[in-house]
Every structure is written in C-alpha cells, then in structure tokens.
Amino acid sequence: MPYCCVCDQTVSAWLPFPHAHNRSPLMQVLDTVGSDPDVFMCPTCGCHDRDRHLWLYMRASGVKSQLKGASILHMAPEPHLEVLIEAAQPANYIRGDLYPQRPHLQRVDLEDLPFEDNSLDLIICNHILEHVHHPDVALSEIHRVLKPGGIVIAQTPYAPNLKHTLEMKTVPDSQTAHLLYGQADHVRLFGDDIRDYFHAAGLQGDLLAHQALLPGVTKTEFGCNEREPFFVFWKARQTVANDGADVRDEAASSLAEAV
Ligand SMILES: [Zn+2]
Questions:
Q1: Which of 84, 135, 152, 176: CA 20 to 30 A from 55?
Q2: What is the pTM of this model?
Q3: CATH number 3.30.470.30 given to 3-258
Q4: How far apart are CA 55 and CA 11, in angstroms?
Q5: Cα of 8 to ligand 1 centre, how many Å?
C-alpha cells in the first residue's frame, strides 16, 4: 500500500504527472534525472514526489532533527515542506523568492543574499540553480552566509550521462530552452560535473545516492524517484589545532557524521 510521508498516511495510488508527454526528446535521450512522472502527486494531500523524496532524505540524513532552533533560508519554498519545517520550530525561518508571489515570502536574490556572513544553519534551494544566471555567484553567496558546519540542500534536475554541463553563451528562446534544458525557463542542463560547482564555491559534500540513505524505500511504496540523489553540501568548520594553525575538519558537520 503506498504511504505518503508528507501527510503521514497510506494512500490509494500515486497520480501521474499530466504533462509527461511534453518531455523534450533530448531529455529522453540523455535519460535526465528529476521528477518521476509515474508517481507525481499524492491523491490525499497533493504533495509531489520531489516533496516526499526530500522529506525522506531530511529524515534519514539527520537534517530534520537539526531544524529546531535553527536559522533557515528556504528559497521558493514548497508549500507542503513549509508546513513540516515550520512544525519543527526553527528559530528563524526565512521564506525567500526572487519574485515573491505570496505575502509571507521575502524578496531574496540568491546571487546577492541580504544576510550577514556566517549567519544561517540551513539553506534549502531546490530547483533553482538551473534558473539562475550565475550559479558560481549564487553558490559563493550561499557559502558566505552559511555558518561553519551549515548545510545547503539543492535538489536540481541533471543529466548524469552528460560529462559537462550544457549551457549556451546566451539565453535561448523558450522553445530551444525546452529542447536543450528540458524547460522553457531553464538556462542550463547540469551534467555529472554539477558537484564541481559546489566545490568551486568552497562547499563540501556530494550527491548522495538514494540507496545509500534510503535502502528499501521504493518508488511504488513511497512515491519517489530512486534515481534522484540527495544534493547536500556544507561549509567546513574551522577549528584551531593545538599549534594554533587553522585546520579544516572535514567531518565536522553533524550531517557528515550522520551519513
Ligand atoms: Zn500525501
């Protein structure tokens, strides 16, 4: 029996994504990883497979248990996840968007974050990096405002079969963007080098495979794409060694310990 981790109950069956037939032929050839159109929506609460998968990842990795009392920036927040995160009682929960459409959202430009250095414990920015014009700038900003040991979660569609990220010099028209990048408003299609963008900004971490964190969690029962990894990175803690030299403690993040 399918079980929805967002509304916490068994459900009849997952509803498919209604526009799956519009998938770009290039995305089919490259076998890109993103939403799973077969198990798209929960018939009870309306959450999407991306919401469920992320919540399962946050539970399994220990991130969920760190939400209480934390300072969190959630960009373009998914309404179902907002409710779950709010219930976990963060000390400061900023909901941001470049073009806020709901009254409680604050205007936040990921490429120019209006926050102090070392001020946030967690940044969630799912399905955003494929829209921003300068992901290097955005990720540097994320690194700047995260506290040492702070975590960024950035689920992003990508093509693991593509060696290098695909991006034209100029932003193409919407039809070309749909063909090349999978959606009219995407400005690139990340390849297997996506992790390099995070590392270049000074962040640590990697794409964690579904099987590593969620063994036994199947597509049919939990309604999530088993091919979608957990995009989780963190800012290294700086500790001072006995001799006074700065050393990077790569395992300092409690997340790193958890996984
Ligand atoms: Zn549900």
A1: 135
A2: 0.91
A3: no
A4: 17
A5: 7
